[in-house]
Specification:
about 290 residues; alpha/beta; Rossmann fold; 6-stranded mixed sheet; 4-stranded antiparallel sheet; disordered C terminus; binds adenosine-5'-triphosphate; binds magnesium ion
Length: about 290
């Protein structure tokens, strides 16, 4: 049984001529332990997909199963409980409470769970330690850097030991170094057995994923399984475009130049071997 399963899920906003199709009959399954990067242009439905999977939003049509349970059959309190116990959310804008210290922000979800103050403190402290912020326990959000603030948000998302981490552009407001820190942390969470879904506009960050989904117009246009540590092929091609030359051409170019140098004459550019060029992956045949 898949952890996450969507069958022809659509999400529509508005009415009549003003209807906005945020998700268009999306069918997909995500197994436990995957680390999925979701990419695609602004407005293509990434956050909507995350919100449906995270039970923050209802599909307009189609079925969503979480751990085999059909979401449409869940009452609002069951949804809230599943959200609290199974899913940890991380957002671009951190969403910490400014008047609470780091430890109190992290401990907040435990309060809703009815844990004693001592237990809350102990668990929250351990979480801050896990994200490397034990020396910032009593700092307020405005006293932390962006990267540290996001790490507190990650600690808070982890405090209930959720099965699924959903991170919607977790590095969207961070510089390169802080982004790396946050992604290393997410990678570690993934390594410890959690299922991680993250949205990003940065193809470089697909290195941390075992699978990359590329969305367009509310649909998943490309879905690629890949090894950890490499940039998704499709993500790379979409963002950077097709490479201009083939490696063989470059080698041929260099050797032509060297031969010409030996003969002391101007090098002729070798004819491009169009047949040998890498095939484009821009085919639109992905999951729908
Ligand atoms: N509450 C809402 N009411 C009306 N339309 C909405 C609502 N939420 C999202 N939409 C529309 O649904 C579409 C998908 O939005 P979504 O936020 O999922 O995009 P996104 O891929 O996350 O974009 P971004 O990269 O900018 O965050 C957009 O056209 C958006 O305008
Ligand atoms: Mg979004």
């Amino acid at each position: 049984m898949a952890l996450i399963e969507l069958k022809d899920v659509s999400k529509l906003y508005g009415f009549g001529d003003a209807t906005n199709v945020a998700l268009d009959e999306v069918t997909l399954t995500i197994e436990k332990g995957e680390c999925v990067a979701v990419m695609g242009p602004s407005g293509c439905g990434k956050s909507t997909l995350m919100n449906v999977i995270g039970l923050l939003d209802h599909p307009s049509h189609g079925d969503y199963y979480l751990n085999g349970r059909r979401s449409a059959r869940l009452g609002s309190s069951q949804r809230a409980k599943l959200r609290r116990d199974k899913i940890g959310f991380i957002f671009q804008s951190f969403n910490l409470l400014g008047r609470l210290t780091a430890i109190d922000n992290v401990a907040l979800p435990l309060l809703y769970k009815g844990k004693s103050p001592l237990a809350r403190h102990k668990i929250a402290r351990a979480m801050l330690e896990r994200v490397g912020l034990h020396d910032r326990t009593y700092y307020y959000p405005h006293q932390l850097s962006g990267g540290q603030t996001q790490c507190v948000a990650i600690a808070r998302a982890l405090v209930n030991d959720p099965e699924i981490i959903i991170a919607d552009e977790p590095t969207g407001n961070l510089d390169t170094e802080s982004s790396r820190l946050v992604m290393e942390l997410l990678a570690e969470i993934h390594k410890s057995g959690n299922t991680v879904l993250f949205v990003t506009h940065n193809p470089e960050l697909t290195r941390y994923a075992t699978r990359v989904m590329y969305m367009q117009d509310g649909m998943i246009k490309h879905d690629e399984q890949k090894p950890l540590g490499v940039v998704g092929r499709y993500a790379h091609t979409v963002i950077y475009g097709e490479p201009e030359s083939h490696e063989d051409d470059d080698i041929a170019g260099v050797s032509a130049l060297m031969k010409a140098r030996e003969r002391n004459e101007p090098a002729e550019k070798p004819a491009r071997k169009t047949t040998k060029r890498r095939k484009t992956t821009k085919k639109r045949g992905g999951t729908k």
